[in-house]
Amino acid sequence: MKADHTLVLLDTEGLGDVEKGEHFLNTDGYVTELTDLIKVKSQADNEEEDDLHYVRFFPNFVWAVRDFTLELKIEGKDVTQDEYLENALSLKKGIGKKVSDYNLPRQCIRNFFPTRKCFVFVPPTAPEKMKNMEFLPETELCPSFVQATRDFCKYVFQQSDVKKLKGGHKVTGRMLGSLATTYVETIRSGDVPCLENAVIAMAQIENESATREGLTAYQEGMKQSLNFPETQEELSQKHAHWEKQALEIFMKRSFKDENHEHQNNLAVSTPHMFSKLTESK
C-alpha cells in the first residue's frame, strides 16, 4: 500500500505454545543463540556484543497466534492483544534450569525486538471444513477470523518499515538479494555470518555496477549526440553534459562509497572514453 515499495515475504518456522516454557520457540532456541549464529561487526569492541548492535538491524516483532481458542483475559481482566503478548513474554521469578529455560527466549525477544505487536486468530471455520479451506468462500469463514485477517494485513501493508542498514541506508530488492546470497554462502561454508562484512561485500558489488551504468550512459549518450565535424567547444560541452549524467546515475545506485574510490574511477574513466570516441574523428 506504500508507493514505490515492495513487500517481501520469507517463510520461516513459527513460535510454539507460550505455555510450554522452553518450547516457546520452534527453532531450537534460534533467537536465544543469535549472538552465536551471527555477528554485527567483524571485530567486536568487547568480547560480548551489546544487544543494541542487533536491535538497529532487526525489524519490528509481529506475533501472529493462529487457532486461538482462549479468552483475552489475564487474571480475569480483559486485555488487548498486545497486552496478551507482553504477558506471554513476562519473566518468571526464581532460580534453576526450568526458570532459566523459560525466561531466556522471552528475555531475548524483549531485548532484540523492543517494538512488538500481536494479532490473534480464532480457527477460520468448523473443523470438518478445514480440509477444504482453499475452496471455501469468505461467507463460510468465521467473521472474527476474517476481521482479524483484515486487521493483520492492513497493519503489515501500511506499517512495515523499509529495511535499513547502519547509517540509515535503505535496502533495495537488489541489495536484499546480494545480502541473502552472502549470508547463505557464509553459512554453507561453516562460518558465522557477519553483518558488517556482508554490507562491505554488497557495497563493492553495488558500486561496481553503479560505475558501469554511469559509463554506459556516458558512452551511449556521447555516441548519439556526436555529429562531426564538431568544434572543441561543442565537444567539451557535450562531454560535460554526459559526464554529469553519468555521475547522477552513479550517485543514485552507489552505496557506501565512503572513500569515493568508485566515484573517482568514474571521473577518471570518462575522459579516457571521450578520447577514444573522438580521436578517430
Describe it:
Mean pLDDT is 84; it is low at 20-24. This protein is mainly alpha-helical and 281 residues long. The protein has helices at 34-37, 51-55, 81-88, 97-112, 143-159, 173-188, 195-225, 232-253, 261-279, and strands at residues 61-65, 73-74, 77-78, 116-120, 164-165, 169-170. The two termini are 53 Å apart. The protein is built from 9 helices and 6 strands. The radius of gyration is 27 Å and the shape is elongated. Helix 6 packs across helix 7 (195-225) and helix 7 (195-225) packs parallel to helix 9 (261-279).
Q: Describe the sheet with the most strands.
A: 2 strands, parallel
Hey, roughly how much beta strand do the residues contain?
A: 5-15%
Helix content: 40-55%
Number of separate strands: 6
- C-alpha end-to-end distance: 53 Å
Q: What is the rounded Rg?
A: 27 Å
Spell the H/E element sequence: HHEEEHHEHEEHHHH
Spatial order of the strands in the main sheet? 1-4
Q: List the uncertain runs.
A: 20-24
Question: Given the structure, what is the number of helices?
Answer: 9
Structural class, by secondary structure, is mainly alpha
* 3D shape: elongated
Q: Roughly what is the average pLDDT, rounded to an integer?
A: 84
What's the layout of helices and strands?
Elements: H1 34-37, H2 51-55, E1 61-65, E2 73-74, E3 77-78, H3 81-88, H4 97-112, E4 116-120, H5 143-159, E5 164-165, E6 169-170, H6 173-188, H7 195-225, H8 232-253, H9 261-279
Parallel strand pairs: 1-4
Antiparallel strand pairs: 2-3, 5-6
Family: Belongs to the TRAFAC class dynamin-like GTPase superfamily. GB1/RHD3 GTPase family.
Domain GB1/RHD3-type G: 1-161
Pfam families: GBP, GBP_C
